[in-house]
Design goal:
The protein is an alpha+beta fold. The protein is built from 11 helices and 20 strands. α6 packs across α11 and α9 packs across α10. The longest helix is centred in the last third of the chain and has 24 residues.
């Protein structure tokens, strides 16, 4: 009998071979008489990560910095991709940052989603994901898997039997119901050639899930939802843009205990900002520069790899120091993930090399090309699994 691989195994194999990951599923579920296109979103403080499956089962992801600005009139030369919703025409992500746009609000979901700019950003982000995946403009019913911070997941006790289950805190639930579920996003996307295409997105379903639990799901479930591990306890270390999180997971019976260990890669980004005080970089712009290692200074695009390495050297070891007790514990298997893996992979690998730990037996470090997107991918599959259970 052939071995059944996890979602993460499939993703790592594809990333190693440099090809897109492909799954047997199509990313559509049935609700009543409607077909819903499933979209996974992880709305991080530094970037929106999105995931969707094409009609042939190919996985497509995007990563868009959480930046926004109203579009300017470009009188000549290169035009920009712009979005129009109602009376607002705007830019997002890299384009917004290149034109000195604003980083969007950092904080809990219930504070961020009430900002109308954030909702415009999310709508445009989903459109950009669908464009990247080759979907034609038109009307779509969406099922959103929506990753939220771990501390917004709470234990809920049923009034009847007194049993506890995991749910969403009241503040976040209220905001998701008020501003996302049932929303209709009518938005036009104008490409650099001036061609406008109209999209109408109906958010029929929103399934929130703790961000870090996505990593656990991807590592322990097959693409069909089958459990493919003998692990009983896992510690997930998530090096995010805003937060450094530790989440202790018991597989059966299912239980999670989350704890914030400190700031994430924003520590490194703020050191980088100090190296270029004349630019007055926003946190989001500095986070982007950590990844691209490029900045425009005095009208010239500069390679800032040296300054990025200095910033990583300055604060990367502090992040590792916060992780070290969790890395050294032996009771649970350790999974290390999050966008910070892109920056700290070498340092983490070097540290683990001197610890009495064996990769795949005691721990795993998520492939750097996947770590930033993994939670978005996992919440996409979480929606698919829930739909199968309801049949």
């Amino acid at each position: 009998m052939s071995q059944v691989h996890s979602i993460l195994d499939t993703l790592v194999t594809a990333a190693t071979e440099g090809v897109p990951a492909t799954f047997a599923q199509q990313g559509v579920i049935r609700q009543g008489k409607a077909d819903l296109l499933v979209v996974g979103l992880d709305n991080g403080n530094d970037a929106l990560k999105g995931a969707v499956l094409t009609n042939t089962g190919q996985l497509v992801t995007v990563r868009i910095p959480t930046a926004f600005r109203e579009a300017l009139i470009v009188q000549g030369g290169k035009q920009e991709v712009a979005y129009t919703s109602g009376a607002t025409t705007y830019w997002i992500g890299d384009t917004a940052l290149e034109h000195d746009g604003d980083g969007l609000f950092i904080g809990p979901t219930y504070q961020r989603i009430v900002d109308p700019r954030m909702r415009l950003f999310l709508a445009a982000g989903v459109v950009e994901l669908l464009v990247t995946a080759g979907y034609a403009p038109g009307v779509y019913q969406l099922a959103l898997g929506f990753a939220i911070p771990n501390d917004e997941i709470v234990a809920i006790r049923s009034e009847a039997g007194g049993e506890e289950s995991l749910g969403v805190c009241d503040e976040t639930r209220s905001v998701l119901l008020s501003y996302l579920k049932g929303a209709i996003w009518q938005i036009s996307r104008t490409d650099p050639y001036g061609v406008a295409m109209h999209w109408e997105l109906h958010v029929a379903l929103v399934l929130p899930q703790a961000q870090t639990v996505g990593t656990l799901l991807a590592a322990t479930r097959s693409p069909s939802g089958r459990v493919v591990t003998d692990l009983e306890g896992v510690t997930v270390l998530d090096i995010g843009g805003g937060d450094l999180q530790r989440i202790e997971c018991t597989i059966n019976p299912y239980q999670i205990v989350a704890r914030r260990l400190g700031d994430g890669t924003i520590r490194i980004a703020r050191v980088l900002k100090e190296k270029f005080p004349q630019l007055e970089l926003s946190d989001v712009a500095a986070q982007r520069a950590l990844v691209t290692r490029r900045l425009m200074v005095s009208g010239r695009t500069r390679d800032i790899s040296h300054q990025v390495q200095e910033a990583i050297a300055s604060q990367g070891q502090a992040i590792l120091a916060d992780l070290l007790p969790s890395l050294r514990q032996s009771r649970r298997f350790v999974l290390i993930t999050g966008g910070g893996v892109m920056l700290l992979q070498d340092a983490i690998t070097e540290r683990l090399a001197v610890e009495p730990k064996r990769r795949a037996e005691d721990y795993d470090l998520v492939h750097h090309a996947l770590a930033s997107h993994l939670n978005a991918i996992a919440v996409l599959f979480a929606v698919l699994f829930k739909a199968v259970k309801k049949r």
